[in-house]
Amino acid sequence: MVNFNYYAPTQVVFGRGAEDNLPCLINKYGGTKVLVHYGGKSAIKSGLLQKVEDMLSGAGIAYVKLGGVVPNPRLSLVHEGIELCRKEGVDFILAIGGGSVIDSSKAIGYGVGYDGDVWDVYTRKYEPQSCLPIGTILTIPAAGSEMSDSSVITNDNGDIKIGFSSNLCRCKFAIMDPTRTFTLPAWQTACGVTDMMMHTMERYFSKEDDMEITDALAEGLIRTCMTEGTKALKEPENYEARANIMWAGSLAHNDLTGCGTIGDWATHHIEHELSGMFDISHGAGLAAVWGSWARYAREENMPRFARFAKNVMGIDITGMTDLEAAEAGIQAMERYFESIGMPTNIHDLLGKEVSDAEIEKMADIASHGDTHTLGALKVLKKADIIAIYNMAK
Ligand code: NZQ
Ligand code: ZN
Q: Does 67 contact ligand 1 (Cβ within 6 A)?
């Protein structure tokens, strides 16, 4: 087991009616002027936004609002948020939504304390020294941003999507009421389940083989996502299914399943170029490329892929070679993705062919012009990334 430093400081308040704790939590974490940040329409339609406004007003907590965060959140709205926070003297951000709203909040939080363009944080030109405190009411379990140290922002000028990680931006609290996720469309539910499974698999497919406790947690987590995901798609108002998925989404990305392993993350980087260029859903993009990545990288630790086939996909691998077992496991996961409506290649993802020029551009950005590599299980150069995009075509 490799050394690790586990840090998961977010207070989680979970269950029916959890949002009633909002004013106490904002007071606890020192918010006196709040930016209420949200997405397109779901928080308005469900009445959640109004309820939050009523609770804040009732508790005498001042606030301003900024809606309009889109999936693959844009830098332009982040700039608007920074200006608003400065003008209004905001000292706390409340993100109502999912990964996109939380990530936009994190970027705003970094930007308020920096005189330059906050994009410098994402391009690594500037290391942020502070972030406004953030709390969230999570409405879609998927990205795990409610407990992660990451945020991923798309620069509208060039459609480049870049992530940045720092403990500074970790949410102070995350309010999670599974009933708030009953309204999720099937597509978003499936994308979310895929993303959380992938957050676990990125850490699971490691060269390390001696972290039994972490493996057991990871395998249980992925199996739970699969069974409860299928259930939630059939019965969108099944509380237990929604609750299991919601908690799984946080556990999948608060690094619990990364303790003692070395995460790979190549599939995520390869996907981020797709969602940056084509504005597609992150979870669907992951499903479209994972099988190709797995077939390309598996030779680096074939027994681990065989173990995945047995312990996660429930395949009887007796008498199979490691390669046969690995392939059976990968195929079974692809069939699962298809069963929940996810694409397993780029053509099905985009509804059109991806061109060689587009692949070249994505691989070039992902590898910083072939000066950086991706992955840890198998280290990928630009040519390897191109090969994976081609396999996934
Ligand atoms: O805008 P509204 O109307 O709210 O609609 C949203 C949005 O269209 C809808 N939605 C949310 N809650 C709903 C709902 N619809 C009905 N009922 C509800 N209760 O769902 C759509 C997707 O929301 P979004 O926040 O984009 O989804 P997700 O949580 O999957 O976030 C995706 C973003 O997170 C990034 C992704 O790259 C992508 O940009 N990621 C962030 C990570 C992190 N910060 O740690 C890690 C991830 O790997 C990921 O990269
Ligand atoms: Zn993800």
A: no
